[in-house]
Amino acid sequence: MKVTGKITKVLDVESGESKAGKAWKKLVFTLETKEEYNNLYALEVFGEEKVDNFLKFNKVGQEVDVEFNVSCNEWKGKYFTSLQAWKVFKADKVEEVVLEEQGDELPF
What we know:
Elements: E1 2-10, E2 14-17, E3 23-32, E4 40-46, H1 48-57, E5 63-75, E6 78-90
Parallel strand pairs: 4-6
Antiparallel strand pairs: 1-3, 1-5, 2-3, 3-4, 5-6
């Protein structure tokens, strides 16, 4: 899935160790779109390299395109849904093109 919006918050980086003893790193950021309803997303970036790259190239107030997956997990009878961002990049801005009026003449 893909969404475009402005980064409104970048939460503190979380880190820990898995049951297998492997270190992990996670970052959550919020994105606000221009939609009238359902315009706030909390997305997570998982993995040390991805978190470091996010922090290096993105900041609050920046307009970005985010490609993400929706994930749902069950734990002790409760369900948790997360939006896992896997690609974050500057939003493509469509520039307006002003066309000159040609009158009744055809351009060819």
